[in-house]
Specification:
It is a single chain. By secondary structure, this protein is of the alpha/beta class. About 45% of the residues lie in helices and about 20% in strands. A 5-stranded mixed sheet has the order 3-2-1-4-5, sandwiched between helices. It has a 5-stranded mixed sheet with strand order 8-7-6-9-10, with helices on both faces. Strand 9, helix 10 (about 285-295) and strand 10 (about 300) form a beta-alpha-beta unit. Helix 6 packs parallel to helix 8 (about 220-235) and helix 7 (about 185-195) crosses helix 9 (about 240-270). The radius of gyration is 20 Å and the shape is globular. The model has no long low-confidence stretch (mean pLDDT about 95). The structure holds adenosine-5'-triphosphate (ATP), magnesium ion (MG) and fe (iii) ion. Fe (iii) ion (FE) binds near residues 117, 121, 141 and 310. One of its GO terms (biological process) is tRNA threonylcarbamoyladenosine modification. Keywords: Acyltransferase, Cytoplasm, Iron, Metal-binding, Transferase, tRNA processing.
């Protein structure tokens, strides 16, 4: 059967289509048929962050065209089921997407599945690397930084720990702003860091002290340290080497994230680590995580960058897994929830 996924929790309108086998040899295998994304990121750039009102309006305008493109790309007139993000995210943005998904489901007479965006970020990996074994997932995005235990398909995710303050992507965006690099900060900082020396400045590794929580993160101290470094350098009348700052900042983030993620997988005795969310696109994080996983004998799975950031395919992927696991469709009266907890997600 085909499952269409609709994502609208932030500034991307995503419509993805997958097919899933419900019986037979390769039962549970999910194949990507279409992945169309329209982003309003350029409209937010001059404000230095996502403006909720602009995002909602952009979803309204992009929804039907993106839906049409995805159906055409998948070569279908209508899917057999619809899955849509109902949280967490921006209230207005979620409402636009979820209302549209319910309307399509009612008009086409197909079942509707309410999806947790964060579970989608993890489930997307199955599109590229096959069904997920029991694993630890590091979810690193613009709004979240969490270590999750994914016991097995069909079971709720367990949050082992999360950031106490800024999300990793948020730290990237704030530091990029500080260095005058524009928004979103991740990709620009990642590129600039390649020209710098990652050992130039010793930035702090938050939450890594002996009494700090094993699976929690903190990035606001790092952000402050970067700000203080830039200020001090200016005050001395010296020029800030932005590439060195970018590389040293990136090293601090990637070091803590990869160390804690690999340690969590080892703690829990699982053989697989999945890294997902926008920051999983980061080149240094991928590199460090790979070498540490190799050393620990853990399989690392990271979706390709396009699937790491928000898209409809990840919602379709989780929807397909739920359907395959025998989940009941959601009621069309299910409400969106901007603060939906990651632990409610089924995968
Ligand atoms: P959430 O999923 O928590 O609701 P979101 O959906 O807005 O948040 P994503 O779209 O998954 O987040 O990720 C966006 C974030 O990823 C931004 O903060 C961006 O700076 C960051 N990012 C993107 N590419 C990179 C990169 N190469 N290196 C570091 N960060 C990156
Ligand atoms: Mg985004
Ligand atoms: Fe996201």
């Amino acid at each position: 059967i085909t499952v269409l996924g609709l994502e609208s929790s932030c500034d991307e309108t995503g419509v993805g289509v997958v097919s899933v086998k419900l019986a037979g040899d390769d039962s549970g295998n999910v194949t990507l048929l279409a992945d169309e994304v329209a982003s309003s990121v350029d409209e937010h750039a001059r404000y230095g962050g996502v403006v909720p009102e602009i995002a909602s309006r952009a979803h309204l305008e992009a929804l039907v065209p993106t839906m049409r493109r995805a159906l055409a790309a998948a070569g279908i007139e209508r899917p057999d089921a619809i899955a849509a993000t109902i949280g967490p995210g921006l209230a207005g943005a979620l409402l636009v997407g979820a209302a549209a998904a319910k309307a399509y489901a009612a008009a086409w007479g197909v079942p509707f599945y309410a999806i947790n965006h964060l579970g989608g970020h993890v489930a997307v990996d199955a599109l590229e690397h096959g069904p997920l074994p029991p694993c630890v997932a590091l979810l690193v995005s613009g709004g979240h930084t969490s270590l999750l235990h994914v016991p097995s398909l069909g079971q709720p995710l367990v949050e082992l720990g999360a950031t106490m303050d800024d999300a990793a992507g948020e730290a990237y965006d704030k530091v990029a702003r500080l260095l005058g690099l524009g928004y979103p900060g991740g990709p620009v900082l990642d590129a600039l860091a390649k020209q710098g020396n990652r050992d130039a400045i010793a930035f702090p590794r938050g939450m890594t002290g002996p009494r700090d929580s094993r699976h929690a993160f903190s990035f606001s101290g790092l952000k402050t340290a970067v700000a203080r470094y830039v200020e001090t350098t200016h005050r001395r009348g010296e020029v800030v080497d932005r590439a060195d700052v970018a590389a040293s900042f990136q090293e601090a983030v990637a070091d803590v994230l990869s160390m804690k993620a690999v340690r969590a997988a080892t703690d829990l005795g699982v053989g697989t680590l999945v890294i997902s969310g926008g920051v999983a696109a980061n080149s240094r994080l991928r590199e460090l995580a790979q070498s540490r996983c190799d050393a620990a004998g853990i399989e690392l799975r990271v979706p390709k960058p396009r699937l790491c950031t928000d898209n409809g395919a990840m919602i379709a992927s989780l929807g397909a897994h739920l359907i395959h696991a025998g989940a009941e469709p959601s009621s069309l009266s299910v409400a969106t929830n901007p603060a939906l907890s990651v632990q409610v997600s089924q995968i």
